[in-house]
Structure to design on (730 residues):
């Protein structure tokens, strides 16, 4: 717990701007060591830093431990890895000896609870991040358990939490598996510091300061960090937002989505500057007439305390809304939340990496392979991204059920084209088994490369959770030309036969650049292209902050047009979510009718999974919509229909699999209760038959066997919206 005066975060130093630590003389390791024997072979007497992770060690820039390890190694530090240690005692945490500086602890590339359990809270039988796809190699809430074992192993050593589990649990959060609000993981783990978001910039500074023997309790000014304090220090202006109907004096922010005329009208004025003028490329921002607020770097917002939000779902939703308003690095203020007699203090989010810094991170000497200790054991997450390249980070989509924004932020961080090309060439020349097919050039999304706000000033002031909802912002650059140029250059490389795009496509952005859609469809689709409309109905889509189905229809028209021009038979495979907050039974019925009309049969379906800290999770827990504002006044705010209980969740999944005879009894009962018995019958206009086969499974199999050859069928989801794909997590 910090007892030193809190210093406001200051200007960030470039990743390459530090003087290397003395141990840089050892040079880069072929693989970061996992044993004392490997340390001896490298000539190390000790590690400076030991990283503990719930994933198997794969030395590849898609795996967080490898990225952080190699970034620290480039600074001159000796870094060891404890991958999936046995957590039942502290002995395995002593395997590499006591590190000189600190333990870095992460649950891995996914939240450990999402990794171990299904949306129905049932244990999974596999783990894609474990050799042999074996389940059970990490504990529940792994970051917490690992931190406690590190403390038992070496009591006086600093412990730094990081990774997506730390990001999503940095404040009091609803835990779906226990159906209650839990404390910040920082409190329960008793770690010294918590790093949230992409942590390269923070971890490098912390390592150098600890190497200079600065006490960890004095490191209070690093962005993207959280720590414990007793009270708000002198010199900080505290905004009390601990009451839902009295959120304190918060300055108004100009809405960058409005034109100057609309902004003037909102103040009861007129804007003569726009009269007769054409619309500017960037919307101008008027001078605020509000009272001058204290400097942001000296302001902290007090969230409702843990003890309050754990027993008051309305306050929980309010806290979620306030937190999500403070996520833009350009204007976010510090947050503080009381836990008993101490505060969890969160500094503002980290400053995104520049293109040069992104290149530095991805150009480090990764072995691009699992550690040799695993032998020939298959690691499915590694196999999935083995021949793919990550070209960017972040997502400005703001989907309420997704964890990308909470972890990576909404400002896009792109690599240079040259850096991406170098990585493709390295895959071609060094990675065993490469056949000439690059499985993906993408990131959290396939097509946000180099997209962003046209104005740095507007971007720094914006408080919107999404740049594309309810429509695409006029200030957003949607030019896909740099991405098209990269595609063309990449597929022209010698030895590259095909480049597929496997990341999630933001199709409402893609239709803004028909040339991009043509390039994608003509050269980069392997017969099927997976996209995620998530739903067809306005109610659930508004709670997801997803575009209407009309955007899907426009993209589908372009997709089919360019496929025909290329002489290719290709299919779109849409994915949908069942049981999302705000989804009625009627919404699912209409989605099922849409699926049948368009000839889609989902083999497997995705049920809403409440991940910690997501806005949709706040809806699920509270029954309120944080997007609309929170109030105890029944005339204000918006209540949300929550799909709870096994039976109703099963019904929503059954609507997505309307063609499965095993679901017909449940669907018939529901349709009759909804007054839609007209959809029960044996005609093409009916949703489910009126008869029930003796062997439902055999009947369903026969229907599949006799279905039209080549007809699209939505298959298994390769990613989780509640987490991130393997190569997109830090």
């Amino acid at each position: 717990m910090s007892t030193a005066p809190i210093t406001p975060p200051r200007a960030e130093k470039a990743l390459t701007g530090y003087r290397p630590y003395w141990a840089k003389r050892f040079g880069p390791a072929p693989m970061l060591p996992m044993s004392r024997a490997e340390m001896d072979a490298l000539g190390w007497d000790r590690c400076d830093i030991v990283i503990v992770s719930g994933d198997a060690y794969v030395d590849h820039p898609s795996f967080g431990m490898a990225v952080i390890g190699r970034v620290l190694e480039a600074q001159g530090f000796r870094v060891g890895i404890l991958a999936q240690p046995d957590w039942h005692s502290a002995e395995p945490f002593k395997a590499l000896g006591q590190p000189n500086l600190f333990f870095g602890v992460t649950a891995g590339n996914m939240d450990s609870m999402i990794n171990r359990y299904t949306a129905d809270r049932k244990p999974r039988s596999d783990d894609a991040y474990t050799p042999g796809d074996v389940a059970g190699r990490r504990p529940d809430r792994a970051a917490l358990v690992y931190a406690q074992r590190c403390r038992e192993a070496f009591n006086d050593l600093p412990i730094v939490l990081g990774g997506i589990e730390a990001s999503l649990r940095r404040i009091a959060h609803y835990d779906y598996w226990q159906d209650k609000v839990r404390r910040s993981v920082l409190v329960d783990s008793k770690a010294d510091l918590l790093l949230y978001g992409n942590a390269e910039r923070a971890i490098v500074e912390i390592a150098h300061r600890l190497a200079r023997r600065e006490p960890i309790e004095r490191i209070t000014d690093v962005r993207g960090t959280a720590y414990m304090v007793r009270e708000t220090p002198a010199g900080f202006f505290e905004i009390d937002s601990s009451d839902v109907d009295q959120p304190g004096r918060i300055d108004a922010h100009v809405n960058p989505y409005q034109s100057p005329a609309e902004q003037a009208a909102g103040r009861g004025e007129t804007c003569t500057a726009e009269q007769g003028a054409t619309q500017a490329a960037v919307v101008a921002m008027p001078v605020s007439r509000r009272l001058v607020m204290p400097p942001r770097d000296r302001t902290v917002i007090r969230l409702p305390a843990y003890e309050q939000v754990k027993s008051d779902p309305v306050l929980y939703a309010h806290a979620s809304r306030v937190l999500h308003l403070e996520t833009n690095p350009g204007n976010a203020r510090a947050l503080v939340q009381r836990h008993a007699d101490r505060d969890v203090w969160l500094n503002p989010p980290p400053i995104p990496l520049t293109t040069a810094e992104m290149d530095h991170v991805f150009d480090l000497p990764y072995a691009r392979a699992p550690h040799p200790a695993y032998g020939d054991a298959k690691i499915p997450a590694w196999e999935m991204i083995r021949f793919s390249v990550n070209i960017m980070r972040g997502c400005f989509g703001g989907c309420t059920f997704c964890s990308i924004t909470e972890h990576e932020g909404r400002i896009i961080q792109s690599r240079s084209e040259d850096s991406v090309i170098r990585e493709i060439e390295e895959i071609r020349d060094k990675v065993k088994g490469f056949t000439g097919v690059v499985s993906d050039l993408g990131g959290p999304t396939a097509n946000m490369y180099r997209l962003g706000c046209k104005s740095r000033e507007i971007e720094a002031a914006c408080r919107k959770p999404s740049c594309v909802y309810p429509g695409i912002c006029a200030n957003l650059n949607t030019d896909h030309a740099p991405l098209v140029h990269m595609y063309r250059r990449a597929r022209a490389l010698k030895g590259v036969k095909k480049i597929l795009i496997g990341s999630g496509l933001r199709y409402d952005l893609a239709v803004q650049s028909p040339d991009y859609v043509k390039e994608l469809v003509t050269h980069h689709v392997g017969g099927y292209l997976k996209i995620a409309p998530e739903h067809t109905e306005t109610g659930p889509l508004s709670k997801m902050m997803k575009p209407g189905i009309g955007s899907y229809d426009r993209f589908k028209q372009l997709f089919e047009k360019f496929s025909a021009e290329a002489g290719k038979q290709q299919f779109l495979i849409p994915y949908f979510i069942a049981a999302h907050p705000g989804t009625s039974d009627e919404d699912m019925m209409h989605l099922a009718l849409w699926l049948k009309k368009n000839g889609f049969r989902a083999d497997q379906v995705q049920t809403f999974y409440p991940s910690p800290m997501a806005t949709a999770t706040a809806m699920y827990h509270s029954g309120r919509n944080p997007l609309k504002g929170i109030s105890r006044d029944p005339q204000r705010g918006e209540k949300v229909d929550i799909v709870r209980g096994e039976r109703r969740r099963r019904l929503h999944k059954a609507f997505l699999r309307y063609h499965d005879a095993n679901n017909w009894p449940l669907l018939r009962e529901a349709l009759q209760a909804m007054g839609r018995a007209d959809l029960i019958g044996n005609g093409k206009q009916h949703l489910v038959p009126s008869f029930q086969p003796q062997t439902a499974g055999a009947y369903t199999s026969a229907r599949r066997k006799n279905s039209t050859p080549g007809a699209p069928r939505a298959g298994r989801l390769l990613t989780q919206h509640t987490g991130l794909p393997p190569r997109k997590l830090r």
About this structure: The chain has 25 helices and 25 strands.
